[in-house]
């Protein structure tokens, strides 16, 4: 196997024997084969676009299939063999439709002809032949950009999947996914063409995130500042992790009046800020921190656990019999709920002891989405003009297990008292319960939400830039980003598409970026690796 799509990749180079994430070589091969098979669907989808042939069902499937290959999403080989077979069935269906409508179908490229082998070992062998490094003739810099694009569209597909679940779609997003999937089949594209494709991926990701923002806010209302208890309430309990608000809503609805309290874990924390979710009396509080601590935290949780989207790790023995997956997530032998009926989760919660007593804990604030922040824009602008607020730091991105991630906690602790820290995604869990005080009533620590809410952060930055009559790069705002997986790749491409300069990125740079590609990024965007909190604060603030 060879995989280097996430930040924790082995030795900072690539996982070759087994994934640091727990991905086994057979699953790695099946994921590569799935992407390969999707290129076949994409060939006909792109032809179909030209003659008005589209399939919403296949578009949605393509997003789900790509999302399944993200880091920490699906580890179940059986699910992948099913996805590969379905991909080929959809390819043939689309080919037929395109042919009937008079479109071109005479592709002789291999993904258009691919037939999955049987049994599964055969499929695994096929997958081993089509991995990330299977074509030795591709120029290393072009390969780096091809992989940047591939990991970027995996991120886009995750956001598009979340959005479509809430009824928001745009053909433009699907069209680009297909265009990007077949791009490597075109051997004439230059380095500049690939840079352009990568930046277009950022543009499309902005649209996907806009759709998701509309889906979330139109369905559940705009988040409002909300106190969330970190303690526990005596009684039965369900812990919901991941990102999918609709799954959380379904659990809240189905568990009403059963004496069960619902807790969030990881990226689900910002759900407490949504009016249509916090109206449920039994939606109690938040338990634990970020995804990489789940083995310890889930083992101590006395109720049922549901993983709604990515960030699943190998379930520990202690909780393997009371964790469930739904959506694109999967682990062999872990019960999977595919139909939105969470009765098994509720039954399990009722059978488990739950919390035996009330436990007092700290409280944290969430719910500072674009509507809440821009609702006090005048106050913020005044504070900047008067010098009360000197600088904003967007400390955003994913958390992870590497020790270098202490940088972000230290950075926030050392930020001067006249600086406001905006947070986004699970990197905040290293410091989310710190009391940083306020500046004239404006809290110094403002959580915008999940990684899925990056659109909200961008809107806040753009609105502030407009209010000051400057560009985003001229604002007293610095972006200190931590990346982990492919959604972060897509967001980074969006920021580059928007022309954002001077991003500090850590804890390490992507293994798939070559020195020449890094040079392009530095020349055009002045992107830079994090150094130490002291050095970076000095460089930013002088
Ligand atoms: S997803 Fe990350 S940790 Fe898992 S196999 Fe790939 S590079 Fe390794």
Give structural notes.
This protein is an alpha/beta fold. Helices cover 45% and strands 12% of the residues. It contains 19 helices and 16 strands. It has helices at residues 25-50, 56-68, 77-100, 110-113, 120-128, 140-165, 171-182, 191-220, 245-254, 275-278, 294-300, 343-351, 370-375, 377-385, 406-414, 454-468, 486-497, 515-525, 533-541, and strands at 226-229, 236-241, 260-264, 283-286, 304-307, 323-326, 336-337, 363-366, 391-397, 419-424, 438-439, 442-443, 445-449, 477-482, 504-506, 528-529. Strand 2 (236-241), helix 9 and strand 3 form a beta-alpha-beta unit. Helix 1 (25-50) runs antiparallel to helix 2 (56-68), helix 1 (25-50) crosses helix 5 (120-128) and helix 7 (171-182) packs antiparallel against helix 8. The radius of gyration is 23 Å and the shape is globular. The structure holds iron/sulfur cluster. The site of iron/sulfur cluster has 12 residues, from loops.
The largest pleated sheet is described as: 6 strands, parallel
The percent of residues in helical segments reads: 40-55%
Radius of gyration: 23 Å
Count of alpha and pi helical runs: 19
Q: What does the average pLDDT come to? A: 95
Q: Note poorly predicted spans.
A: none
N-end to C-end Cα span: 46 Å
How much of the sequence lies in strands comes to 5-15%
- Label the overall shape: globular
| Strand numbers in spatial order across the main sheet | 4-3-2-5-6-7
The hetero molecules present are: iron/sulfur cluster
Number of strands: 16
Class inferred from helices and paired strands: alpha/beta
